[in-house]
UniProtKB/TrEMBL annotation:
It comes from the Eukaryota. This is C2H2-type domain-containing protein. It is found in: Nucleus. It holds the Pfam family Fungal_trans. GO terms for cellular component: chromatin; nucleus. Residues 65-90 are annotated as: Disordered.
Amino acid sequence: MTNKRFGCEICHKQFSRVDYLSRHLVNHDAVKPYPCQQCNVAFARRDLRDKHLKSKTHQRRIEYLRAQDGVSHEPQTYSTTAEKPPERSPDSYRWLFGDYEYDQSASSLDEPQMEPVYPDFSIIPEPSLTRKDIYSEETIDMLLGMLQLQSLRTSLSPMAVSYFADLFWSNFDTNYPIIHRPSFGCHKHPFLLTLVIVIGMAYSKSSSNMDMAVRIQRRLLKLQMSLLCDSQDLKLELMQSFALTCYFCSNIGDSGLQKQMRLFHATIIGVLDVPSLTRSLQEPQLSELDNVSPAQLHELWHDWIQYESRKRLAFFAYICDSQHAYLNECHALISIFDLQLDLPYTDAVWTASDANLFMSEYSKQPRELIPRRRQSVSLQIENSINIMPHIKEEGKWPNFLFSLRRLMQPYKDHQKEYNMNCFSQFSRLIFLQGLISITWDLRWKGLQDLGIVSNKKMSALVLRLQDAYNQWREYFDFQILTTNNTFLKKDDSQSTTLAHLNRYDTSPIFWNNLTQYQFGLLLLHVDTFAVYKLATQYANAVSRENPYPRINVPTKIRAWIRSPSSQLSLNNACKLLRTVFLSTGIISSIPHLAEYVATSCLALWCYETFREDIPAGVKQSSFPNPIRYMHNGMVSQNITKEDTLQYLNLIIEKEEYGGREYEFTIRQQYIQGLLCYFSLLLDLNEWKSLNINGSLLRQLVFKKYQQQ
């Protein structure tokens, strides 16, 4: 028998010759350089691809992939657009949800049982931030002259401005990487240079800097609106500045800027014109570049930066528009069907510092399809294929609409999906925002608007959306867990993986993703604006003379409190609050998170105040007095913090207390502590655009005991 002396350290298979072992090791490489263009799969060795091409299943797989995944059987370039722009047609969520029969008797997916997986990227060096030569004395003088704010010169030294720019890159850019940092410099448009400073000021945790940022932004908005009247064509940097202004005014600025943005939001979104922007995008050809000169390579890199930046700008405009809609109770202007775009490329490609490194990372992008991860629940589906003719087929990189569709539709045997290393945290945030925008849009649409037949109940769509949210969470947790395991090994096997392509650390975007997911589930079941209006009405009516005012509770709120979904809502609200409770600093890194926190508090208060299952032995006069939370005329953070944790654990862990009467009373006490604790946290928040502040939460607790 042959002595097999050469073993594979990965799978422990033995070989008799070292060249056999070398050939075998190629199978373990994550980079597969031999693709099958028709099936959109790749192989580590050429002989394996040749064998596949001769197989009997080759043609069957072509037809199957076309039917199941919408992937073309023809060889495709990396172009993201068809030669003829697609015709616009009415939105149809039927294409996303699929033509299925939902078994409502089956238990829907609950939130994954695992706690949030926290990444560990301590071994990865942080990239450098702002180059000190970008904001020189001359550049600062030029910007202040443009703004006619020379009086601010003493407050804006090159060192201070560079510090503000660093805050922009470490906070905003990690959440929304839409500006290419390696190519950012003093040659950029003055509007864009100004907004990097302004947004950075907002993260400095200084009231004076925030006031200065609002002052600069107010002046800049006037210049931007004036420019719109004189410009026929807007370049990329100008469009980026308009999108950043939209974000700042809606999420960070004071009430004056927020009011102006309600007027100008539609104008800015119209100027960006996302449908036209997406149709005009075409990715540069970056294959077979072995003999190009360094100058040509740099030019191609520049063209790709323009392409990728415009794509990211379109997604960012969509995020801003979607958030503006559900935080201001209005319609979104950008439909998910306007975004027929590939998702952003990986972090490694986007942050490459030069053309050579860019090409090296670009060649590693995983473009092959792999078997889809099986869902936790199986749903019954029909066999019909629902393809909308105006939606382009998916190409060589994950597409926004198709990625969203995979979350919406149930698992099918032999179904394919893209390698998870294609998806950065920003990409995960984009199609999570897609789920939230659909959730909000369902409130404005009837069944006929959704493109579904009348016997499909809205409750079935809500369950499907809930499953989609939790599928998103399972993928998110799985990718973080896999990435952690890869980097914690700290051995040479890392070189054969693609985990380095994306950063899955605990930067602001990690917390943004986690809290957006929790808020999306809350928004799915709770009418947040009805809750806010009810709380405001109650706070205005309650007093010491009228401690229990008669409030006309809307029918939809009553129905929600009585429904089983109210318990899911309480659970999701508490999980969002616990995330912030355990990491209070994140509220300073994510502007809209403060409003999510306040909304979650009001949802809990609404349920506990207007619930109808009051035990027979409990009277309103016996409710606990919140005076215990006061110390020297101030709310005591220590006592409220303890009761907050008790309430969160009671709801999330479903802890049991002795008797219904005692449990009801203790929950009435703990909810008061929770409102007081988070009111203090909201008061420390610097974001001026917050609609719900700490005083409203305290009025709900203390006003009935105060002298008029």
